[in-house]
Amino acid sequence: MSLATPLGAGAEFDRIRGFAARWRERAHGLGDDCAFIESGGDVLAVSIDLAVENVHFRRDWMTPAEIGYRAASAALSDLAAVAAEPLALLLALGAPAREPTATLDGIADGVGDACADAGAFIVGGDLSRADSLIVDCCVIGRATAAVRRRGAKPGDRIVVTGQLGGPLAALTAWRRGGTPAPAARQRFVRPAPRHEAARFLAQHRARAMIDVSDGLAADLGHLLVASDVAGHVRCEAMPLHPDALAAARETGEEPWRFAARSGEEYELVAALPDAVTDAELAASPVPLTVIGTIEAGSGVRATLNGAAGSLPPGHDHFASA
Amino acid sequence: MSLATPLGAGAEFDRIRGFAARWRERAHGLGDDCAFIESGGDVLAVSIDLAVENVHFRRDWMTPAEIGYRAASAALSDLAAVAAEPLALLLALGAPAREPTATLDGIADGVGDACADAGAFIVGGDLSRADSLIVDCCVIGRATAAVRRRGAKPGDRIVVTGQLGGPLAALTAWRRGGTPAPAARQRFVRPAPRHEAARFLAQHRARAMIDVSDGLAADLGHLLVASDVAGHVRCEAMPLHPDALAAARETGEEPWRFAARSGEEYELVAALPDAVTDAELAASPVPLTVIGTIEAGSGVRATLNGAAGSLPPGHDHFASA
Predict the structure, then answer these.
(1) Which residues of A49-58 are buried (b: 16+ CB within 10 A; e: fewer)?
(2) What is the model's pLDDT at position B78?
């Protein structure tokens, strides 16, 4: 079989392509943010998201409740990415045998809060011993009017929700042994899946959409490959989180470059028909910024005030370190 | 909130009860083998099952394909436990960054084989770095005529599919540094979720059902608590795997006791109305054995040839070691 939705570059995606080739006709519809299951005339969107201690989070950075909130939100964001209405979450939790009850209760509270904020119910789970904390969330949503990665057309406007760079600003501070600025930290530990904005974008004829989990360039890259188009990003237009400006100054990077490689944003990137007006976009429940245009061809073309540039690659869990 | 389906004893279940108390009205229908989601007039059953290296499997015991087959089958068995028809599986896979591709490909092959055997498609997943192997499977099935844990009535016959004790015979051999007998090893590394038998039992008026994952006594205990009844198990009637007999001789245990504490069997235990005849049971695609009777009251009462006995507790991941 081939992937229903082609994936962009990256070692992780090479592996997924390898799996799809092995599974052949046993696999269905891999490669979008969610799987889609038809049931009784309805369509459900389903996604699974694995968060592992010291890979996705560190205990000295976050409280157990924040670990739970963040892991659940990462999964719920996959529903937002296809404009599906959150219904249910299943939680598989791994922890050391002697882990204090307070840790597990805290994670459960965080998962519960994220579900409450998204309007989803916790309907099941599994609990296992493990060497370190594992928080794996499977989410299910109603996808009556799903927006997928494919569908963008030359001439479409590329929009992004919110501001980019906050999570990486927090991560940069922690990695240096420092303390993140409160707003940047909040973006990292309590991300806000963009369910309302997703509904707005779907209602405003979004043709293709994805959430930013691995960095703008990487995720936009998937959307472009899936849609078989190219994208032109005007880097000067990128909406920057205030703390990303300060963090980029410290790393000596251009702020837009810093923001573009920030992962786990859970902001949405969408392709909208050119006919959708600025006045329409201004009514979004989360600010939308037009950062570029879909073009014919392939790949991402970046410019900074008209001069050629390049966007940094995203985070890849399986790239050689 | 209270659990929709009450759980039996055990430290793991104490924790789940604790979660349910914290989540209150944010949780729905916890405590059965699957969660049930209504969609477009249909009902879907969903379950998640986490398999962790050195907790659920060891690499020196099993090939990567066996690790994958077993992890997927454990999840698929939750669908059999409620007589749901397997539709789809999502695979979240964690592995060390430098893990050879062959390991991941092997696990993927095993998951694919288990799905092929169950008639399910692989529709999505997630791939992450982790310190050790993590195989987390979320399964979705059609539950048009679901059989739940609750519903057993005094006078019902308790039946079990297949033979018990094979997986523990394999485990016992490995733990002693030995080599399991081939048939016992096969029961451990390539368990067979009882989808056909589940369909047969549902068609033959099964009133309550569960799969044996933590040991007969533990899982029957959940069914009894959920149904608010007691059970009488005639230990001499327990169907024993041939290799369990030899293994029990070595441990000096009574074979039925050995078989009753064997977990990860993925056999089904069901309560059937007394009116279902032996001739009807004989037509099952997997041999069924009547091992006891549902009674009024609570708890499991065990007898051996008429004399009072007791069944061993099941495996509990969170009991103090």
Answers:
(1) bbbbbebbbe
(2) 96
d(CA B219, CA B263): 9
Domain boundaries, chain B: 32-142, 157-309
Reading the block at residue A225, the tokens are 């490959």
For domain A157-309, is the CATH number 3.90.650.10? yes
Average pLDDT of chain A is 92
Please choose, from the candidates B164, B226, B157, B308, the residue with its C-alpha nearest in 3D space to the C-alpha of residue B7: B226
Give me the pLDDT at residue A321, please.
Answer: 32
Spatial distance between the Cα atoms of A221 and A225, rounded to a whole number of angstroms: 6
Judged by CB atoms closer than 8 Å, whether chains meet at A108 and B27 is answered as no
B1 contact A CB<8A: no
Distance from C-alpha of B304 to C-alpha of B251, rounded to nearest angstrom:
19
CB contact under 8 A, A94 and B46: no
What is residue A319's predicted lDDT score, i.e. its pLDDT?
45
Angle in degrees, 0-180, between the axes of helices B166-175 and B182-189, rounded to the nearest 10 = 100
Return the C-alpha torsion angle A102, A107, A110, A115, nearest 10. -130
- Arch. (CATH architecture) of B32-142: 2-Layer Sandwich (3.30)
**Any CB–CB contact under 8 A between A130 and chain B?**
yes
Which 8-state DSSP code applies to residue B53?
B
The structure tokens listed for B270 are 């069901």
Among A7, A13, A23, A135, which would you mutate to test the B interface (most chain B Cβ atoms within 10 Å of its Cβ)? A23
> From the list A23, A140, A317, which residue is nearest B108 (CB)?
A23
Picking from B245, B85, B254, B80, the residue whose alpha carbon sits closest to that of residue B161 is: B80
DSSP A185-208: HHHHHS----HHHHHHHHHTT--E
Q: What totals of helices (H) and strands (E) does chain A contain, helices first? A: 10, 12
Q: Which among B48, B54, B144, B320 is the top mutation candidate for probing chain A, defined by the most A β-carbons within 10 Å of its own β-carbon?
A: B48
Reading the block at residue A188, the tokens are 């990292």
pLDDT tens by residue, B120-164: 999 999 999 999 999 999 999 999 889 999 999 999 999 999 999
Q: How many CA atoms lie within 13 A of B284 on its CB side?
A: 25
Token readout for B206 is 């099964």
